[in-house]
Amino acid sequence: MYFRQEIGKWGENLACQYLESNNYKIIERNFFCRQGEIDIIAKDVAKKEIVFVEVKTRSNLRYGNPAEAVNESKRRHIRQVVNYYIYRKQIYHLAIRIDVIEIYIQKYGCKINHMKQIL
């Protein structure tokens, strides 16, 4: 596995731990279809919403903030995957939202920034 992939997988694991500690239930990870992939699908237990989470992990800000990588093209793919997931699981009646979790790897740990309802 390449270094970037390892960092990304580590970030997704950390994001899942963060979500679970904040009253979310992980439903699925790395949901893949022809339209693209969603890193994490979870249920916000308190708000009773299905949350589609894109995780962006960075070890430096040389290429900008992690959320900046979720450009219009990536957002379009996310929307397509979300629509397909809703269709496939027949969950039209549930409230949904799309979040981004930024993970900054720092010298002595990491920082997590949870950005809700980005789309």
- Strand arrangement within the widest β-sheet reads 1-2-3-4-5
CATH topology label? Trna Endonuclease, Chain: A, domain 1
User: What count of helical segments does DSSP give?
Assistant: 2
Rg estimate, integer Å: 14 Å
- N-to-C series of helices and strands: HEEEHEE
Shape: globular
Number of domains: 1
**According to CATH, what is the class?**
Alpha Beta
- pLDDT < 50 runs, ≥5 residues: none
Quantity of strands, as a count? 5
**Percentage beta strand:** 35-45%
Give the end-to-end Cα distance, rounded to a whole number of Å.
Answer: 31 Å
Class by alpha and beta content: alpha+beta
Give helix % range: 25-40%
In CATH, the architecture is: 3-Layer(aba) Sandwich
Question: Kindly state the mean pLDDT as a whole number?
Answer: 89
List the helices and strands and how they pair.
Blueprint: H1 3-21, E1 24-33, E2 36-44, E3 49-58, H2 72-89, E4 95-106, E5 109-115
Parallel strand pairs: 3-4
Antiparallel strand pairs: 1-2, 2-3, 4-5
What report would you give on this structure?
This protein has 119 residues and is of the alpha+beta class. The protein has one domain: Trna Endonuclease, Chain: A, domain 1 (3-Layer(aba) Sandwich), CATH 3.40.1350. It is 31% helix and 40% strand. It contains 2 helices and 5 strands; from the N terminus they run αβββαββ. The protein has a 5-stranded mixed β-sheet, sandwiched between helices. Strand 3, helix 2 and strand 4 form a beta-alpha-beta unit. The mean pLDDT is 89.
